[in-house]
Amino acid sequence: GAGVSQTPSNKVTEKGKYVELRCDPISGHTALYWYRQSLGQGPEFLIYFQGTGAADDSGLPNDRFFAVRPEGSVSTLKIQRTERGDSAVYLCASSIPGTGINEQFFGPGTRLTVL
Amino acid sequence: GEDVEQSLFLSVREGDSSVINCTYTDSSSTYLYWYKQEPGAGLQLLTYIFSNMDMKQDQRLTVLLNKKDKHLSLRIADTQTGDSAIYFCAEVSHFGNEKLTFGTGTRLTIIP
User: Fold this and answer.
1) I need a surface site. Which of B65, B78, B85, B89 has the fewest CB within 10 A?
2) Residue B1: pLDDT over 70
3) Which residue, among B70, B79, B72, B5, has the nearest Cα to B34 in the 3D structure?
4) Mutation test of the interface with chain B: which of A33, A45, A89, choosing the one with the most B Cβ atoms within 10 A?
């Protein structure tokens, strides 16, 4: 079956612009996660959705970052007034929580470059 | 907060065993995971161990957990060129907290 997909795969933008990154989770997965991976680092948690609501947004670095999941499936990560430090690979994952190990299935990521 | 650390690089001859180490600080960790990341591919869960276990074996993979020292290791037997990748350990701190905390990753290079 289809895995987690993310679009676009690459995004280049200028400092100060607004960007939207999209994640399509595996069908039936109620939990959705966003992580950010900077060069040479491990992924860092941003936000976790259970259904339509954000269950934990403690990883969002500041109020320029916002994410939605209006119908409990597709999610969009929105970044306002982008800064060069926002350049990273943004990873999305989905899972069925409550299944013991709660394996998170990751998408290929969106590489964001802010010039 | 939680902190997970790994050495950055490991080089191993093809056919030898690879041992990748990880230390973590959160004593309430419930599950600990090993993920593999290959160029152009997403993170793939390799194996995991529950915090009340001290060893788990899965084909060529052996996970050892020393809970007292908060040390986790991944041993890959008979390392092959296809094992070249970055390996991340990760932990979930307690039930109901679903977020993964990852280490910095260890880049495994296979020497022919």
Assistant:
1) B78
2) no
3) B72
4) A45
